Amino acid sequence: NAGVMQNPRHLVRRRGQEARLRCSPMKGHSHVYWYRQLPEEGLKFMVYLQKENIIDESGMPKERFSAEFPKEGPSILRIQQVVRGDSAAYFCASSRAGAGSTEAFFGQGTRLTVV
Amino acid sequence: AQSVTQLDSQVPVFEEAPVELRCNYSSSVSVYLFWYVQYPNQGLQLLLKYLSGSTLVKSINGFEAEFNKSQTSFHLRKPSVHISDTAEYFCAVISSGGYQKVTFGTGTKLQVIP
After folding, report:
1. How many angstroms away from the CA of A113 is the closest CA of chain B?
2. A87 alpha-carbon distance from chain centroid
3. Any idea of the CA torsion for B2, B5, B9, B13, to the nearest 10 degrees?
């Protein structure tokens, strides 16, 4: 059973470009979470999605960031018009259940560098 | 709202010596507690978790943590560290019965010195 798959592992974008980060949850998991880890900081929650629904986006920056988890295919975290401050590691996690879940499984992360 | 405090950003320790990584949390509701480990340029791996029951929980590689409700602490310990334990360790909480909106501490880098 493959774990949470994120791609690409490393992504370099110039300022002003778009970044698209993909996350395929573990088999049987329909709950996906995105976290951001800035240099020298812990992980910060960004957004929680179920299939076709955004449940909690309280950690998402108000502009340029969006996330989706379509019925088919991976979850996508999209960052438009990237700036240097977006450089970070972005982690995806998935769980089988929503409320009452006792564990989430994390992917290897996508390390975004904005030059 | 919840918060997690890891006061020690870096902990150097000699190989085979004991270590304790401190974690305190704050929450107005009951929580589940976790320790995650992150090796360089890797993702997070769950080390151990406390959900309920016995307050002492153990991992397969010799780490243990004890939930102390009165002190709101969940310190991580290992009696004898190995070089391979060099990594960053994150304490984390979620609301029990809630979904996996995890609140992480800022992490403690454990450096094991040969």
Report:
1. 14
2. 14
3. -120
Q: How far is B65 from B49, CA to CA, in rounded Å?
A: 8
Q: Do A91 and B44 touch (CB under 8 A)?
A: yes
C-alpha A108, offset from chain centre: 11
Please choose, from the candidates A34, A37, A36, the residue with its C-alpha nearest in 3D space to the C-alpha of residue A47.
A34
pLDDT in tens, chain A (115 residues): 579 999 999 999 999 999 999 999 999 899 999 999 988 788 999 999 999 899 999 999 999 999 999 999 999 999 999 999 999 999 999 998 877 778 889 999 999 999 9
Q: Which residue of A31, A43, A109 is in closest CB contact with B99?
A: A31
